[in-house]
Amino acid sequence: xxxxxxxxxxxxxxxxxxGSEMTGISFINFVCSSRDTAxxxxxxxxxYAYNLLAANCNVLTFLEKAHTKITHVLDVNGRIPxxx
Length: 84
Hints:
single chain, 84 residues, alpha+beta, two-stranded antiparallel ribbon, 3 helices, PLC-beta_PH
C-alpha cells in the first residue's frame, strides 16, 4: 500500500508510454501517494509534452544555447572552470 488506503491504486497511478516507433512502445508506471499528486504530475507532463517550442526546436539551437552558457563562465585565461 502506498499513500491513503481508501483511494484505489488506479487513481494514484501515472503511466507514461514512450518509444521511437509505434510498434516498440514501452511503459513506465509511477504510483503516487495521493490522487492530487498524480493529477499534478499528469498536468505537468502534458505541459511538457505539448510544449511546441521544445518539440519543434532545431538541435543546432540547443547546441548554440549550450555554447553560449559555457562561454559566459570562462575564466580570465579562457578556460572553463572545473567547478562549472
